[in-house]
Each structure stands twice: as C-alpha cells, then as structure tokens.
Amino acid sequence: MKYPESVFIIIEDHQCPLYKLGDEFRLSGKALVIEHEDEKKFITTVIVKTPLKKQECRILAGDIADILIKYSSIDKIPAMQIKCGGCTGSVRLEHQHKKTAAMSQSAQSDENDSDKMARLLRNFSIFQTLEEEQIKHLLPFFKLKRLAKGAVVMKKGDPAKDLYIILSGRVEIMEDDGMLIASLGKGEVFGEMSLLSGDPVGATVKVSETLMVLSVNGKKFRNTFNTIPSLQMYFARLLTRRLARSNVARTEELSSGMVGKLTDLPPSEVYQTLKTNQKTGMLILTLSKGPAKLSFKDGDLVHAVYGKMKGREAFFETLKERDGRFRFTPGLPPEEADLPEMGNFMWLLMEGLRRIDEGPETSDTL
Questions:
Q1: Is residue 145 part of a domain?
Q2: pTM, entire model
Q3: pLDDT computed for residue 33 by the predictor
Q4: CA distance to 239, 300, 350, per residue, from 343 (Å)
Q5: Which domain holds residue 164?
C-alpha cells in the first residue's frame, strides 16, 4: 500500500541526545476532524517514521504528528520549520518536500548520507547556486564540529587554516581589546578573509551560542575553488561586502592615490581593495626582485610585470612577497586603457594562493 508522505529534516541540532543534522522523519496518514456540540474530535491514522535504527523520541514524534492534525492532510502541509518541545536538548526541522512511499521501514534507506547532507546544505546561501552533485563532491572535504559557548575558534595572528560555515549557533568577531566587530549566525561564513589573502587571522572568533559548524581545510578549499565558478562568484560578493565595511578610509585615500608598506597591507589585500573599489590606475610595488607594475581597470587586472615575468606569472609571484612598499596612481596610459582583463579576479587570487601552497614546482599551464 502506498500513500503520500512528508519529509522533515533536522537543520539545527542543539545537543539532542538521539538525533543529528540531516536525520529524516517521515510523516504520513490522515486526520479527520469531527465537530459536535462545540467540540472537535480527531480521528487520525498518523504514522511518524524515525531515522533508521534510531530510538523514537515521543516528544518529537508528537510534535510532528500535531502538524498533520493541524492541516488534516499531507498535501496541505506548507513549507515550514518546527522546533521540538525539547528535553535535555532540542532540534529544528524543516519540511522540504513530499514523496509517495511504501509503508515499510526500508523506505528510510532510499537515500544515503551524502544525499541527505547535500540536500540539507542547499539551505545555505554558499551552496544554493551549486548542483547537488557538486555539493556531494565537496562533502569529503568538510568536517562537522560542535563547539561550546565561550570556545575560541580562531585567534588573531594564528595561521589561516580553515574556512567555517555556521549550521547553528553564533560567533562573535572581536578585536584584541574585546571590542565586538561583528556577530555571525546560521548560514554565514567566517575564516574566508585569511584564506583568500593567505595572511594570518585578522581577528579573534569566539562562540557566543553553542556552535555547530562545517569546516574545510584551506588548501583543499583553494584546490576546489577554481573548479566551481559559482563559488568564485559567491566569495567575490562576500569579499566585496566585508571589505566595504572596513575600507571607508582607504576609499578616500584611493581617490588621490595610495602608498604604504606591504608589512601593513599585504599584496593580496592591496589587490582586493582595488577590486572592491573598482579602481583604475597603476600599482607600483618595490620588491626584493626589483619593481613590479600592475595595471587595474575598474578593479580588474589587465597587465602585470615583475622582473622578467609578465602576465599571470608576474601577478602570482607578487603574491608571495611580504616585504616592500606600494604606490597606487589613478589613471592608465593610452596603450593600456583598452586591454582586456587577465582573468576572473577571484580565480587569479585563489590560483596564486594555491600555487604558494603547492610550492615552486607549480607552473602556469593556462
């Protein structure tokens, strides 16, 4: 016998003793409401199937069953989220879609864990433009971590190692003196600034509410990043928003030119600042191997020379430098005004950092 079935998936886990993120609960049956003398009576055939081989939680099963009683029919249940009544922990579930399934426990094993997790991750903005197969390709690189309130996820000055995606809970981004820079929650990303620049962590990140995150190693992330254009676009937009909040003073400086030391502002951050502010002009770097000249048009790189190197190789080589000075001058000479961009800016940046990770043997084959 087959009949309509609704699926509820755990999207937040707050120390639930029985279930975890991605676990599915299937609701089926019918609820008939009979009204008599100002009273409502329910005749139900509710079936709530718990995740395979896991103990039933009567509190959660009751919460899910109440949904069918409220809407009377599976096909009337709208897209929604619910939170369980709670015991020693709690979970939040999302009703995402409906299926027709047989009345058998084996129906719960139709999809493997990667399918469930891929579908779960589609709820987060970083993954919304990716195909399900692309998400499943990324899954082996991720680790699921739970951190208690007060834990320090990363400390200012630490080497940049991981990128984090918040599944539940909150973190605070803080200065050395304890001043709050930002508070981030579900679906938001942190650790990306250091990974995109290759520089040490710029601020301390502390857990303010019990945290569940997906983390990915920076080197693995960079290798994968350049194979998925939609990820490049996501981080380009994220980078623009983050830098826009911190670059107010730099924007004013850029209108008339900008000078500085690479020990204060590494090459990757200088380039990102020019990209974010869509600047046109020449950037002169005084480096260990001599001067380097990079030309930008509306924030895109159109020309690069460093010693005997030109083009992408010159750009990649400058990313390695940590000592020297820079000077930006608005405007381009006529012969460079119509040059095409050398490539997608985020791709160039991540490819350069990937090459630094892999060492000097990497060559430009593009």
A1: yes
A2: 0.47
A3: 46
A4: 17, 8, 12
A5: 136-225
